[in-house]
Amino acid sequence: MILQCSRAIFAAPWLLAFAASLGWSAMSAAAVPKLQDFAFGAELNVDASAAVHAVTLPDFVYLASRQAGLADVRVFNASGGSVPVGFRDVPRPVARLEEVKVPLFALSVPIESDERRESRQANDSAANLDAAATMALFVLDTGKVGHAYSGLRLVWPVPEENFSHRIAIEQSSDLVRWKPLLPETSLTHMHSPGAEAVVKNEARFRTTTARYLRLRPLTPNAAQALPVIDTAYVRYRLRPPPSATAPLVLTPLAVAEQTGRFEFELPYGMPVTHLRITTDTDGVFAKVQFWNRTSRKADWRRVGQARVFSLGGRDAQVTNKRVSIRSGHGRFWAITPLADTPASALAAPRIELSWKPQQLLFVGTGSGPFTLAYGTSLKQPPHREAARFLSEFVRGRDVRTVSIGAAREIAGTAAYAERLDADTLKSWALWAVLIAAVLGLLWMARSLLREPDPTTADGTDDDAKADRV
User: Fold this and answer.
1) Which domain holds residue 9?
2) Is residue 348 domain-shared with residue 444, that is, in the same domain?
3) Which one, of 168, 163, 320, 277, lies nearest residue 226 by Cα?
4) Three-class SS of residue 328?
5) CA torsion sign, 252 to 328 to 84 to 59?
6) pTM over 0.90
7) Same domain for 203 and 122
8) Within-domain flag for 137
9) Into how many domains does the chain fold?
């Protein structure tokens, strides 16, 4: 009897381990998504020479996604394999350098020495200045630039002799009062037979909108030897406007008048960056805070606060501007008054949500064409690890942005039907494995208990025989 029980106890852990391994394999297999599990897709035009690609997500991807953090967005290669993906904010547009040719005027200004000035002032006479002592100046008219500018480029013919002159750049709005803009810079042109010329004909200074610029020499020989400047260009940086979408206007779906709480729901989740509250009621002044959550069961997360006001009549309406908030990706929003604001201070508000599209980063594993798939009821894990790796990889690198084709239907609305997701399958499989392991253990114990004792041929042990004798 003791031997049979020891066998059962020894076999039980191995049986449980084997059953658990089978169940875990089944659970892991159930969590792998396929292209046919998604509602829609779009082809990505990928350059095979790049390792990591970026695509700016259009509106229809957010509209079809059903899971927080775009967890149900995947990229598949030609063989149907899912490749690692991550997300990042769309990089700020790079400002490009522009330049405009501006009118240039050369002037010769008489130079008066300190001794001559003191003598003339002492004699109170307006003696003519020596015509030979003049200083060459250049005045630029930047009136047609139309932008604040911060640089200058000059063009002159190749001189017969090398030169390097120090000059000052001054600014004015009326040609009367001049203020320093760049206290000192240099103009240089050096060349020799068989060598590349050294030319410094550019200057950078703080951004200004002054109408006129003046180039004034600082070195003594520059008074007569400044180069004959043919053309002048003013430089400025033109920064394209950031990519943004039109704001979505929402009306409250739930209102709690006693507490002044208003709840809103978006048709889909997107990375919201700015929020503005509007109302048709005049004479409104309230301080409120904003809340966001990803699902109806999730906890509310505070993302900002602001003053809301609508003052004045129709002819002179003064309203609050939009405020920047911490990025909220959830579909559900709420407004609540602060402690010093009465619940009735805000009536029938609307919120305008402005958001910026994201870029999806993915690794070009396998062969193309690659398909962006999105929208499924199968619960998918977030892209945390892949996103962290891709964010570190692309930092400081120029990632090529690929274009996305038109959306096409894969499984359509059938992909949103309620199905057993990976977590449910895991739970069911685990329970099935445990029940099977217990039943197997009971069957093994029963079988071992019914076997005859091998210590004696007739199934009777030696002590029993001694008692009968």
Assistant:
1) 2-28+421-468
2) no
3) 163
4) strand
5) positive
6) no
7) yes
8) yes
9) 4
Each residue's pLDDT tens digit, 158-178: 888 888 888 999 999 999 999
Domain termination residue (choose one: 326, 355, 384): 355
Spatial contact of 274 and 325, defined as CB atoms under 8 Å apart:
yes
| Alpha helices for 31-82 (secondary structure H) | 59-64
Please give the backbone phi and psi of residue 303, each rounded to the nearest 5 degrees, phi first.
-120, 0
Is 415 domain-assigned? no
Neighbours of 40 (CB within 10 A): 22
Stated length of the chain? 469
Range list of β-strands (E), 257-414: 261-265, 272-278, 284-293, 301-311, 318-319, 323-328, 332-337, 350-355, 358-363, 370-374, 400-401, 403-404, 408-409
pLDDT of 236 above 80: yes
Question: Do both 144 and 174 map to the same domain?
Answer: yes
pLDDT greater at residue 366 or residue 281? 366
Q: Which of 136, 135, 156, 137 is nearest to 233 (CA)?
A: 156
What is 130-196 written as a DSSP string? PTT-EEEEEEEE-TT--S-EEEEEEE-PPPSS-EEEEEEEEEESSSSS-EEEEEEEEEEEE--TTS-
Let me know whether 49 and 155 are in one domain. Answer: no
Tokens of 216: 């004034």
* 307 strand-pairing partners: 287
